[in-house]
Structure prediction request, 622 residues.
Amino acid sequence: MTTIAATPSLSPARSKGLWMSQTLAMSKRSVLAMVRQPALVIPSLIFPLFFAALGSSSFGRAVRLPNFPKVDNFLDFALAGTIVQGVLFGSVTGGAALATDIEQGFFDRLLTTPTSRVSILVGRLAGAAIFGAFQALFFMVVLLPFGVSIKAGVAGAIVIVLCGGLTAMAIGGFTAAMALKTGSSEAVQGSFPLLFIALFFSSAFFPRQTMQGAYRRIADINPVSHLVEGARGLVTDGFTAGHVAAALLVPAAIGVFSIALAVRTLYSRLAAR
Amino acid sequence: MNTKQPGPTDRSSDGGSSTAPIIAKGLVRHFGSVKAVDGVDLEVHEGEIFGFLGPNGAGKSTVIRMLTTLLKPTAGSAQVAGFDVVTHANDVRRRIGVALQDAAIDPLMTGNELLHLQAVLYGLPVSQVRARADELLERVGLVGAADRRVGTYSGGMRRRLDLALSLIHQPTVLFLDEPTTGLDPMSRIALWEEVRRLNQEGTTVLLTTQYLEEADQLADRVAIIDHGKIVKEGTPTALKASVGAPTLLISVAAAQALTARDVLAKFGELRTTSEGSLGVGLEGGAGAVTDVIRALDDAGVKVQHLELNEPSLDDVFAESTGYRLEGAASTGMTDAAGPAPARKRGRRK
Prediction:
């Protein structure tokens, strides 16, 4: 009676290729969602610029403070912080989108398909990475006419773009884990102030060298400081192995941790069904 | 439970229970202290449309979610398309199509994009994706809207897209969770036709509904679920017959009324009717209509109007559960108000 063949089981090689195409399709979807909801995305592009403008007009002369790292102007110093700030905000949007999928049942729709569960998550994070890389490029291009110069040149700019992508993925891992844990977009959006605190208690706006006491100690151990400083070194100092390593390895290391956390949360969510 | 099950019992004896596309044994699902599903046994046969009828909160969706691998049973087991839903979930997923009422379609994507995504998720070869998507869009009548975002679709269009999405990989078993809830009558009928067509092509369909008429129109067999348990199961005809005899109404010229009354009385209990027509509860079921006509003809009675009213599934439901479904599910669609050819027209098989 029923002559139609259902999708058969796949060979390992084919299933690996399939995993890639599924992950790609999922990341395409999350990028599309951002492109088609500019209202959700634009704040993460505008507010960091606003902070950069505010910083450079208010604290422009702070660069002459004793202990302030040697920079040509405040914007050079601020660029990396601007990028990380934008990426943090953007990651909240990505995590909230995943939570919305859960709330509205699109996640269930995906789960009824034989697609790899991890590709649902990785697709989402890859989409976040693409947007993060775009943000990094966007901030560099927009601030260039205002006097930003990247000492590490084009190669350094490329590393900064990669750093933006990796950072988005790393922070996206945390917001995705939160989305998977709570299934609530409001809860994910509620993490926004937390990210703000993490940002302010870091060297995103001011160098650690000018900080004192407890504030300094917090900034020292705050991963956000280290996220910012790799890219900052490329802008203010030049293309050195140390700066490249810091710009890429710090977000990569955080990413390994956060993505592992997100995968674990995903599986415990699936197991709890 | 229900002794009148002519169709299914016959079929399972030749098919064998191991080949039935959907088998559930003692399915139980608790949410905390709430027993959403409390021991459901189910066997859906190949090529069948099986209707799961019940009010909101009866446990319909929870059963579907277990059968489609979205939820794990607290106890019991289920096999779908020959595979266990817990231990071989992915094998099940490859073979079933699922359209869930509460699983939203991403409003930001176009119909075409969603079909392509779905095709990739089911692992269709890239070379086939386009043709398959076009074929399905054609099938559900969404070619013109294919490149519009789903957010701009009407409710009926979304359901049709949902159906197309669930068919991308040519599943052998299709699960439709309340496929027409909230749709206008026209869209509902269009969807019914599509489901029938799929079924005729060989797809086994399990659908849940809170509409009696939908179950009556579409389903070969119906299970009535209430408080997490199946309280009645069988073909709509058998279920309705179990409640009581269908009523035959005739109108005759006033002069022949007495003769007609005498003839009708031989076929069952006379029933009071309004407006001068005569009514009889046909003890021999709807099949006795031809005998009645013949007898009336022999007696020289000229029938001016004839109407056969079967007991509705609502009567069955009321008898099984103690309350009427239509009151609970007042979404504007009732047996009486809907486009109700079900009353007079015979079942399609």
